[in-house]
Amino acid sequence: MIPRHQIVILIGLLVGSIIMGVVLWNLRERAHKRLLQGESTAPTQAPQVAPAEQATLMVASDTDDTVNARVLTLPLPQNPEARARAILGKLFELYAAPDAAHPVPGGPGSIAQVFLLPAPKGGPISSSGGSDLAVVNLTGAFASSHPSGIETESLTILSICATLHANLPDVTQVRFLVDGQPRATLAGHADLTRTYLTAETLPTEGVHL
Question: The whole model's pTM is what?
Answer without folding.
Answer: 0.70
